[in-house]
Please model this.
Amino acid sequence: MGRGVCSSPQQLCERADVDCIDVCTFPGYRLAAVELAAKAHKHVLVEKPMAVDLETAAQMVEVARKAGIQLGVVSQHRFDDSTLFLKRAIAAGRLGRILEARCVCEVAPDG
Model:
């Protein structure tokens, strides 16, 4: 299948050249999207909030676990105080000329 627009989520999941599905829909549809992707053995990334309630989120995790796919949740931090502080410092030239940057995200041991 050539590059281009897919006419349905099912068609997208059937594409051999797609490894991961980024679900950018309203939270109420995300469980169905994860189920479709899992059926096609495609990894899934969903936007925050992951689901409309904890039960649905747990179902999404279980669907991904059973299918052996990765399920990730995008958590933007662009409006956090630390991010805004850094943005202002860069814009003001307070850090000099940035040649390289590295970001480390730490996760709690139980998370």
